Amino acid sequence: MSSELNKKNKIYEVLKELLQYNISDIHFIEDHPVYVRNSSGDLIPQDIVFLKEELRWFIHDFLPASKIDELIDGTEIDAAHSIWTTRLRINVYFDKYGIRLALRKISDKPPSMEKIWLDERLKSFLHEDKWLILVTWPTWSGKSTTLASMIDYINQTRKAHIITLEDPVEYVFENKNSLITQREIWKHSKNWKDAMKFCLRQDPDIIMVWEMRDWETISAVLTLVETWHLVLSTLHTIDAAQTITRIIDVFPPYQQEQISVQLSLTLKMIISQRLMPTKDSNGRVAAREILINSPAIANNIREKRIPQIISIMETGFKSWMRTMDQDLATLVAEGKVDLNYVLSRVRNVENFKSLLNSKLNETNKFRPVD
């Protein structure tokens, strides 16, 4: 028993040491060095190796027997685990080397909208009684953190019932002005379908759905909005245009016209964001594309004229909208991110250079970018 305890203690001692630093992710790989992702987003190997037995004992600390059985059968498992004052989101899986764990560090408290540079003007949308707000991008873009900051703002400023449907529960909220119910799928409900169906009987005002993952979830989310709820969710899409297309195209052709109309009537805002290393390499900053629904955009959603939506966003700065290229130009002009890093990530290089020169001119730093 003492040797088993020592194996677990070794992992916890390493975690205690690593979590003191400004890192976002930790990777445990059977019989291989531990890797950590630093504040700039780079993966750095550590002079630490864990054996299969050590990782197995650690896994048994936070996974119930039923999940262990699923893991053995070849299923990847998502879980959350609190260690001291730090909460970790953990994915356990196998590859050719054996057991692997990807651990994501979650702050003990959700950050404020100000701290993550989320436009304060968007707060007004969180006081609405209806609408759909989406935060999008593939993994590791801070979607969960952005949603958590919004939920925390609502919790402080509204007297409402907030229900979160998550897999797993990440940020842990305490009731402030609002009542918060956090439910973990597979633990507090049998599946997504039941959780979304029965949450309507739990007197919600705001519902946060962790991810719109398939047509069934998307359909349920649109129904929740139509029943007069403010719904926040995520999608793994890289911009507003792709998000709208994905939602519509996931349905069979005979339903797409109906879904286009539903989406045009329920959507309020899409925030597509990506994390980028700062120019001084001391951290990361979020670049965000923002679409806010308007009569013109709603009409183009109904007609599925997606390219015209992009044109409206490009000229909708006074309505708080912006494309990803416009926000990247702002970040470069303000000296927050490196131009060379950004150039390979923009939609249109020539258009971006024109945007950047315009931004530099606004800030009296005009220097033509060739």
What brief labels describe this structure?
370 residues; alpha/beta; six-stranded antiparallel β-sheet; 13 helices; 13 strands; 25% strand
Describe this structure in words.
With 370 residues, the protein is an alpha/beta fold. Helix content is 38%, strand content 25%. It is built from 13 helices and 13 strands. The strands form two sheets. It has a seven-stranded mixed sheet with strand order 9-8-10-11-7-12-13, sandwiched between helices. The chain has a six-stranded antiparallel sheet with strand order 3-2-1-6-5-4. Strand 5 and strand 6 form a beta hairpin. The chain is globular, with a radius of gyration of 22 Å. The model has no long low-confidence stretch (mean pLDDT 91).
- Rg estimate, integer Å: 22 Å
Q: Low-confidence segments, ≥5 residues, pLDDT <50?
A: none
Percent range for β-strand residues = 15-25%
Number of helices: 13
Would you tell me the overall average pLDDT?
91
The counted number of beta strands is 13
Structural class: alpha/beta
Span between termini? 67 Å
Helix content: 25-40%
Shape: globular
- Biggest sheet architecture: 7 strands, mixed
Q: What strand order characterises the main sheet?
A: 9-8-10-11-7-12-13
Order of helices and strands: HEEEHHEEEEHEEHEHEHHEEHHHHH
SSE topology sketch:
Elements: H1 2-18, E1 25-29, E2 33-37, E3 43-49, H2 52-62, H3 65-72, E4 77-83, E5 86-95, E6 98-106, E7 131-136, H4 143-157, E8 161-166, E9 179-184, H5 192-198, E10 206-209, H6 215-226, E11 230-235, H7 240-249, H8 253-266, E12 267-277, E13 284-292, H9 295-303, H10 306-314, H11 324-333, H12 339-343, H13 349-362
Parallel strand pairs: 7-11, 7-12, 8-9, 8-10, 10-11
Antiparallel strand pairs: 1-2, 1-6, 2-3, 4-5, 5-6, 12-13
